[in-house]
Amino acid sequence: MVGTLNELVQLSNTRFGRPRPRHGLRLLYWFANECVSFENSNMLSECDPAEGDFGFHYFENRYDQYGNKLLPDEEFPYYVVGNLNSPGAEDLPDYVSEDKYTDEHNSNTDRIIVSLDEEWFHQVYVTQHHDRSNYDPHATHRISRGLLMIIRRMSLEGFLEKMGYNSYIEYVPPMPVINYRPQTPNTVSPDFTAVTASSSDSSDSESPTTQNSDTRIQIDDDTLAQEPSKNLPSTKGFWERCTIL
Length: 245
Fold this sequence. Notes:
This protein has 245 residues and is α+β, with helices and mostly antiparallel strands. It has helices at 8-14, 24-35, 94-97, 145-152, 156-162, and strands at residues 3-5, 36-39, 42-45, 57-59, 78-81, 110-117, 120-128, 141-143, 191-196, 215-220. Residues 189-234 are annotated as: Disordered.
């Protein structure tokens, strides 16, 4: 069942027309200010959807693959607007169509659907595509007359700011935690043993004709601290402790 939005905060919570550069919020602002006026409790059409003004065209409220219709059945025809590539859409103001050639965030996905009783709008809905042929029923909402009147009293900049349209929070992953363990005073210099690389030591194996015999130094940190003793032979020098294989 399609819910009704009566307040700005409810519209904001749906995330309709966001993030930038999607055009749905600007389209809704245009509709509220240029395409509808109010007489008593009625919404008078200031454009002619049946004639294709501003890219309006007939909307067939057909059954989807699950046997459901997007909108309730009505005795009045539905018309949809918002496809920036439709004939007549070039008459929309620049602030609506300025990102026409931008594909980022599916910028041309938002729509307004109206039911029209000759020159009166009976209902107004916002929705968005979830693929090229179908609309998302979970992103479809009725816009109340009161909410349209609230939007009319705002500037475009104020409306977009209230909706958080220009806000963008970039996710920054946390920095890795580096545990620094200081060297204990009883440790001695690690043992070094020279080892010749073999073909089994490399993850990127080479043919025998291209392998080299470079020597690398293997560090053994398991040497235990020892107390110096007068009875022990003198410590060998670095190169005397190296064994060339």
